[in-house]
UniProtKB/TrEMBL annotation:
The name this protein goes by in its record: Ribosome maturation factor RimP
PANTHER family, A to Z: RIBOSOME MATURATION FACTOR RIMP (PTHR33867)
Pfam families linked to this entry: DUF150_C, RimP_N
Main location: cytoplasm
Organism: Agrilactobacillus yilanensis
Amino acid sequence: MSNVVTIVEKLVQPIVEAHHFQLVDTVYEKEGQSWYLRVYIDKPGGIDIDECVLVSEQLSEKLDALNPDPFEEAYFLEVSSPGAERPLKTEQDLQNAIGTYVHISLYQKIDQSKIYEGTLLEVTDQTLTLDIKIKTRHQTKKFERQNIAKARLAIEF
């Protein structure tokens, strides 16, 4: 499966760059009886449906022209926005998220919790620093990057 994702990312990257979009993620997965190829794109200010259709059509043409076909099964192609709570997967994603509200999930509990949300203050090679609100107080907390399972943007309530 990772081979398919690699092939698709090489095909879609020039398309998104030509339109000044960003490739956020590519996922090839089975749900029930069906396979889905999901490509998530974004740009500053957000991506709209017409831009998703544009990328979908151009990518579909390139996928249809592949020989040999890397897909063993029929699949559904979905090109969409990653949403308001988009994942932060790359170093650039993390750097761009400084000053915004984020959600992190940890591999191991720290202070009896594996989930934290707060404003991302700093990103280094080793740590992420968040300003976390606990009841009425703010606390600055550093998290070792090796202990972070997932990071994404979050909506603050």
